[in-house]
């Protein structure tokens, strides 16, 4: 835990860089390998963008109010991403009896009001239940859940230490 408190701004910056690397890998899988992302994958990408942005902003300045605010938003975004990844993992483990390919994410947003589109995304589709790529036995959704959870927990530890009056991220640039 000492490395966490010794350079919290560096940890926040590393979380941001890790999110960008995950997004780049997702683009590689889509454009080079040829995997098409499902609606839930697209939502997870947006959550990754939010975590990267918020964690990057939190690491930019050492003022307690600044990094705590952006850190809380990053934790919320990581929690949302973990929820979506967990839902997709559940759909992959227990696929619905009737699985259709469904509409793509942008088609749902363009053709339906947002109040109807969001439930359609989380209901999943045949695309969301497909496991097209695995690493060490885990699907993309499984690994996304693990990463979102790790990011959220790391940021929670930093926030709790900041609230307890521990070392502030601005004091250590190590």
Q: How would you portray this structure in words?
A:
This protein is mainly alpha-helical. The protein has eight helices and two strands, in the order H-H-H-H-H-H-H-E-E-H. It has a two-stranded antiparallel ribbon with strand order 1-2. The longest helix has 30 residues, at 64-93. The protein starts with a helix and ends in an 11-residue tail after the last helix. Mean pLDDT is 76; it is low at 167-174.
Main sheet overview: 2 strands, antiparallel
Can you give the helix content as a percent range? over 70%
The average pLDDT score comes to 76
Structural Rg: 18 Å
- Tally of DSSP helical segments: 8
Poorly predicted sequence stretches spanning 5 or more consecutive residues: 167-174
Shape: globular
Structural class: mainly alpha
Task: Report the strand count.
Answer: 2
Straight-line distance between termini: 15 Å
Q: Give, in order, the helices and strands.
A: HHHHHHHEEH
Q: Which strand order does the major sheet show?
A: 1-2
* Proportion of beta-strand residues: under 5%
């Amino acid at each position: 835990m000492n490395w966490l408190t010794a350079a919290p701004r560096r940890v926040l910056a590393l979380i941001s860089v890790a999110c960008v690397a995950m997004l780049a890998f997702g683009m590689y899988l889509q454009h080079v390998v040829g995997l098409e992302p499902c609606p839930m994958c697209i939502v997870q990408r947006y959550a990754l963008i939010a975590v990267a942005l918020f964690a990057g902003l939190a690491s930019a300045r050492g003022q307690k109010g600044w990094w705590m605010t952006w850190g809380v938003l990053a934790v919320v975004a990581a929690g949302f991403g973990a929820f979506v990844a967990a839902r997709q993992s559940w759909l992959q483990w227990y696929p619905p009896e009737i699985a259709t390919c469904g509409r793509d994410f942008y088609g749902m947003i363009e053709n339906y009001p947002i109040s109807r589109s969001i439930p359609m995304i989380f209901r999943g589709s045949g695309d969301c239940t497909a496991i097209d790529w695995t690493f060490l036995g885990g699907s993309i959704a499984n690994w996304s859940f693990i990463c979102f959870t790790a990011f959220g927990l790391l940021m929670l530890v930093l926030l709790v230490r900041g609230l307890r009056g521990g070392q502030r991220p601005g004091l250590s640039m190590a």
